[in-house]
């Protein structure tokens, strides 16, 4: 049995889940600080300075405060959910907390290791935001006796090295898709407040606007280094687009009860998020995935089948299980390659880089 399938019953279980390394779990990153220090944002100076002024204004400084109603709703509403939904929601909280804390660590390490005033200021502001997000989620885990020791997580979880350009592509998409996920859930619960089974969802709108602004920051960084968006780097953009979308699709289809409780279908929810993220990412990426293509959609379903087959083989164990894992891993890699080669949509980049969170 994988650690991802073990019930979360204690703080130790939560910490173990956060430290799990797999294709679908959030990772911690480090990068080339010297290269980050050398970045020049002068080509986008006007938009950059306006963005930093927004960060300094800190319109969410008072947002992440729990109200007296928070604990009451946890006790009265969440206490009525099924054990299966409880497990999926706790997994969601742990994954989200780990992801937010990953950003906090990365941004804080960059700001400590650079002298470039533009980069230092940006990373300090983003680390501040992500620290609030992670702390707020962790407080909800503490309600269930599952609060994580984030200091220990920072010391003991494995780190992955990414070149700055990979950080830009992956983190830009992570922030924008995070916005799209949270705003889609928030809008759904605006329409159907009876589906709000935990109070944390009330915070999602202003929260995801932080994520949106973080994505804007990386958009400006990439547009200021136009070589990152041309030539062979377009192949890397295609890779990260597909990797982020596919990871979300596979992860979300392991939580069907969570989406069902919110009145959402996992597949429809994912394609709504993909559509929003694709619309936004046209500000910086010269290509986008054709997520409406029947071929693309069948490909994600085939990836999901390979994922389920791999997990079943792993659970069987023994030689047969190992052979099954190898078979499904090859099938998944082949499907991913076919999806990567699927035709993409191309477009020109707009003159005005920043967009507004209007979804």
Structural class: mainly alpha
Spans with pLDDT under 50 lasting ≥5 residues?
A: none
Helix count, per DSSP? 14
CATH C-level name: Mainly Alpha
**CATH topology tier name:** Ribonucleotide Reductase, subunit A
Describe this structure in words.
This protein starts with 10 loop residues before the first helix and ends in a 13-residue tail after the last strand. The model has no long low-confidence stretch (mean pLDDT 93). The strands form two sheets. It has a two-stranded parallel ribbon. Helix content is 66%, strand content 3%. The protein has 359 residues and is mainly α.
Keywords:
mainly alpha, Ribonucleotide Reductase, subunit A, two-stranded antiparallel sheet, 359 residues, two-stranded parallel sheet, globular, single chain, 14 helices
């Amino acid at each position: 049995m994988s650690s991802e399938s073990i019930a979360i019953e204690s703080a130790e279980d939560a910490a173990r889940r956060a430290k799990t390394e797999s294709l679908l779990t959030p990772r911690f990153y480090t990068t080339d600080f010297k290269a980050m220090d050398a970045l020049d944002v002068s080509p986008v100076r006007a938009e950059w300075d306006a963005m930093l002024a927004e960060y300094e204004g800190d319109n969410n400084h008072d947002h992440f405060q729990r109200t007296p109603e928070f604990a009451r709703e946890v006790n009265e509403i969440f206490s009525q959910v099924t054990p299966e939904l409880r497990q999926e929601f706790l997994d969601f909280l742990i994954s989200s907390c780990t992801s937010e804390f990953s950003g906090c660590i990365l941004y804080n390490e960059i700001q400590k290791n650079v002298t470039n005033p533009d980069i230092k200021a940006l990373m300090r502001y983003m680390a501040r935001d992500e620290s609030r997000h992670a702390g707020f989620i962790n407080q909800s885990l503490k309600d269930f006796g599952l609060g994580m020791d984030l200091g220990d997580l920072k010391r003991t979880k494995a780190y992955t090295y990414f070149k700055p350009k990979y950080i830009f592509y992956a983190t830009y998409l992570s922030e924008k898709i995070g916005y799209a996920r949270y705003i889609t859930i928030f809008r759904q619960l605006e329409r159907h407040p009876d589906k709000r089974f935990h109070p944390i969802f009330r915070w999602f709108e202003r929260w995801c606007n932080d994520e949106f602004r973080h994505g804007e920051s990386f958009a400006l960084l990439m547009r200021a280094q136009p070589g990152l968006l041309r030539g062979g780097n377009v192949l890397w953009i295609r890779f990260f687009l597909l990797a982020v979308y596919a990871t979300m699709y596979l992860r979300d289809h392991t939580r069907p009860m969570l989406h069902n409780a919110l009145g959402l279908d996992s597949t429809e929810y994912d394609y709504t998020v993909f559509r929003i993220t694709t619309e936004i990412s046209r500000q910086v990426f010269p290509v986008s995935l054709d997520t409406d293509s029947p071929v693309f959609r069948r490909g994600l379903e085939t990836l999901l089948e390979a994922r389920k087959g791999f997990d079943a083989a792993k659970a069987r164990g023994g030689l047969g299980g190992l052979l099954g894992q190898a078979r499904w891993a090859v099938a998944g890699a082949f499907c991913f390659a076919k999806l990567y080669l699927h035709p993409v949509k191309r477009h020109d980049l707009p003159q005005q880089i920043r967009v507004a969170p209007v979804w």
